[in-house]
Amino acid sequence: MTAEIALVKAPPAANSNSYYISNRPPLVRSPLVKLPIGSIRPKGWLLSQLQLMRNGFTGRLPELSRFLGEDSGWITLKGPGWEEMPYWLKGYADLGTILKDQEIITTAKKWLDLAFRSQQEDGFFGPPDNRKNKDLWPNMLVLSCFQSLYEATGDERVIPFLTKYFHFEHNLPAEDLLPESWQKLRGGENLDSVYWLYNRTGEPFLLELACRLYERTADWETDIINPERDKNWEVSRFYHGVNITMGIRYPAVYYQQTRDRKHLELVEKNYNLVMGLYGQQPGGMFGADENIRPGYGDPRQGAETCSMVEFMNSHEALLKITGETRYADRCEEIAFNSLPAAMTPDLRALHYLTAPNLISCDSSGEHDFQNDGTLVSYDPWSYRCCQHNVAFGWPYFAEHLWLATADNGLAAALYAPSEVTAKVGGGTEVRISEKTDYPFGDFIDFTIWTSATVRFPFYLRVPDWAGEAAVSIDGKKRRDKLQPGAYAVISRDWRNGDRVRLDFFPKITVKTWEKMGNSVSVRRGPLWFSLKIGEEWKRYGGTDVWPAYEILPTTPWNYGLVLDPNNPEATIILAGQKPPAEQPFTPEAAPVILKARAKRLPGWKAEGRMVGKIPPGPVVSSEPETEVMLIPMGCARLRIASFPLIARK
User: Fold this and answer.
1) What's the angle, vertex CA 400, arms to CA 394 and CA 402, rounded to 5?
2) Residue 505 contacts by C-beta under 8 Å, 6 or more apart in sequence?
3) How far is CA 520 from CA 30, 54, 555, 576, 581, in A?
């Protein structure tokens, strides 16, 4: 049976998918389309993350959060009720749907039923304090919850509820629509929901409202880093890390209506601007320990846990809008390297900031961050926004593993063990299983299950780092040396039991950060690597059920690497590779281990409890050369992932 294997930069969008709701004209057609929640079943290590969430602080947050008590304004409709409950609910409810956990589904329904009942005659809903403050930001989060509810259950209340609410927004005077604060910076979240409803109803007023919302949202088109525009740099909300990770995608969201490619170009311009100044570090994030700040761009500056999940969400949205693989690469980079270390391995505590170079997760506050107090200890009680908002990180990631394509095919967009059921081709329902240890393993096996022969295109993402990927069909290699940053699309008649294998041949590579003193970071495939540092877990607070921990180092951390950046595999070797455990993101369970040559740098010292700035290299060291172990960044809560380069003789 012949199979055509082509390479494309993005799935073609000449038509719309026949089975899953896509952009309705005049919006630009969707190359990739989200499947209904429940279509994708995570397995393996990813399923374990979701189960740990259920049993950890996300699943039991009402025990911990003062914002989820019976006195919440979202329950009483009296007094305050801001972003915390909706932040949590948008992930918690999706988690229940994905896991088919009836207890979570029932609890989420209680909160959503109250939101339904809170709607007033003119369409506004939620706590009256929000209306008094002219604050629509919390409602934007609840809109996402309603969208998920509709996708999962078809709840007949959702469409008329949202229609009535958007009429309320449409009738607001300009001065009352997103007047200030978070809502003004984050109006693109509202815009997303307006397009979601438009694609289901086609009501013309929604496109008018979309234009008004974009005009009233803060200017994310002008250079994000623009001191001339934002004179008070230190307090400008533009420079808040979470706002950047959310706002960076908004021009592309509006592009769907304008069809002006300048809006897509603005996304990349601003991304490169931020990452070029503050993202000179591994792991997919940038240094914003509340705000980005001039002179604070080195890899000891942390990223909020909120920023991680919001940046992943933006990349997932951009992937659907453009179809371009780079957004999937960026999402995976954060998910595999930064997000896991933001939480304890049992997902029962988290911290506010995670940095690529972090040698003490203590409660002292002796770190040069913008905010005071404990920011890097692991505490299930103390971190207000991140404690709630982290809930949607893994569930949304799971929901975007597979996407429908405009030509009635399927795309394996993000890689993790899973199974998908979807309609393809002329309407046949197929099931595809994805068996893999990725990102810790180097191949992915797909098996197609179908009741009848069906022809459809099957898209496999080839990441930017994958220089020598190969595709095999039913055990026979069909194409190798696939182009990175593209899709290998297989068009053929598929029969029950057909198998596809995607092989990667990752090399150990080194990234030199010229702006950070020529420091170096080590990468293999989708994983960045950190020095393995001994950990002492020390309880300092909390309760017996919900303890808070410091993690302190028990082994040296101040090493520079001895290597040739142009030939890293001469001094860095793959020392071990094994299938991932249920929780692979720990030093002990690290599925991939590298060995590297290094020297101690006695002059590289801590500043308080914070790692000192990386000494500019190449650095001369008279210390003896030794061997060090490198583990994936996501496994390391104490970490050195940007190293000084040792001068060669």
Assistant:
1) 130
2) 442, 466, 467, 468, 469, 470
3) 39, 37, 21, 22, 29
* Total structural domains within the chain: 2
pLDDT at 235: 61
Q: What is the mean pLDDT of residues 137-152?
A: 97
Closest alpha carbon to 382 in 544, 549, 182, 142: 549
Residue 72: both structure tokens together: 């919440």
The token duo for 128 is 């009256």
Domain stop point among 162, 183, 218: 218
Q: What is the mean pLDDT of residues 171-200?
A: 96
In a domain, 614, yes or no: yes
Question: Is residue 525 situated within a structural domain?
Answer: yes
Please state, in angstroms and as integers, the Cα–Cα distance from residue 588 to each residue in 51, 340, 356, 532, following that order. 20, 14, 19, 10
Mean pLDDT for all residues in the chain: 95
Q: Which of 199, 341, 231 is nearest to 284 (CA)?
A: 341
Residue 64 lies in a domain: yes
| Residue span of the structural domain in which 576 resides | 508-538+550-640
Residue 154 lies in a domain: yes
Residue at which a domain ends, from 173, 202, 218: 218
Measured between alpha carbons, how far is residue 522 from residues 335, 529, 565, 631, 645 in Å? 17, 6, 9, 10, 12
**SS3 sequence of 240-274:** EHHHHHHHCCHHHHHHHHHCCCHHHHHHHHHHHHH
Cβ neighbors of 160 (< 8 A, separation 6 or more) are none
**Closest among 238, 242, 376, 349 to 306, alpha carbons compared:** 242
Distance from C-alpha of 357 to C-alpha of 472, rounded to nearest angstrom: 40
Alpha-carbon gap, residue 8 to 411, rounded angstroms = 12
In whole angstroms, give the CA distance from residue 35 to residue 546.
36
Cβ distance 513 to 351 under 8 Å? no
